[in-house]
TrEMBL record:
A matching Pfam family: RsfS
Keyword DNA damage: no
GO MF assignments: ribosomal large subunit binding
One Gene Ontology cellular component: cytoplasm
Gene Ontology annotations of biological process type: cytosolic ribosome assembly; negative regulation of ribosome biogenesis; negative regulation of translation
Protein's cellular compartments: Cytoplasm
Family: Belongs to the Iojap/RsfS family.
Signal peptide per UniProt: none
Keywords: Cytoplasm, Repressor, Translation regulation
Function of the protein: Functions as a ribosomal silencing factor. Interacts with ribosomal protein uL14 (rplN), blocking formation of intersubunit bridge B8. Prevents association of the 30S and 50S ribosomal subunits and the formation of functional ribosomes, thus repressing translation.
Record note on quaternary structure: Interacts with ribosomal protein uL14 (rplN).
The protein's name: Ribosomal silencing factor RsfS
Length: 167
């Protein structure tokens, strides 16, 4: 069974701050307890609803705005058991990757979109941001080529982005 944890704020120095301290969706349950109907309603109220495709396009635009390279988005519904779409981008340096990740988290908080976690931000060679239905991969060039996420999910349908890859 999977549980959805709501995060109210993101502080770059401390990371995501769960709503209600150690409670789910406003403080009714302890972490690990099964969510109740009212706590799940509160989660919905905390987060703005946006389609998966629109969220992937929005995240790709945020990455482009901060000079990410070679941005792609794939719809992997029916292929992946853990997400509905992927956004993959390349950063020019570790510091750039960390800046991209922080920008995404700031925008997610500002737009009140769901955020579940982030991995790899300390090393910056491959940062994974889990936005529930959208997974964001930020790579250094050599790691992107080595892990070949696009090849792994080649059965996915490309999502047309609102800009050209060359922009």
């Amino acid at each position: 069974m999977h549980y959805c944890f709501a995060f109210d704020t993101y502080d770059p120095t401390r990371g995501a701050q769960p709503s209600g301290g150690s409670r789910i969706a406003g403080g009714e349950n302890r972490i690990g307890d099964a969510p109740t109907r009212s706590s799940m309603q509160k989660v919905k109220e905390l987060h703005r609803t946006i389609s998966t495709t629109d969220k992937a396009k929005t995240v790709a635009t945020w990455l482009r705005d901060k000079k990410a390279i070679d941005i792609i988005a794939l719809d992997v519904r029916g292929i992946s058991p853990i997400t509905e779409s992927l956004v993959v981008a390349t950063a020019s340096s570790v510091r750039h990757a960390q800046g991209l990740a922080n920008h995404i988290l700031d925008k997610v908080s500002e737009e009140k979109l769901e955020y579940l976690g982030m991995e790899g931000s300390q090393q910056g060679s491959w940062i994974l941001i889990d936005l529930n239905d959208v997974l964001v991969h930020i790579f250094q060039t050599d790691n992107r080529q080595f892990y070949n996420i696009e090849g792994l999910w080649s059965e996915g349908t490309p999502i047309e982005l609102p800009f050209h890859a060359d922009d």
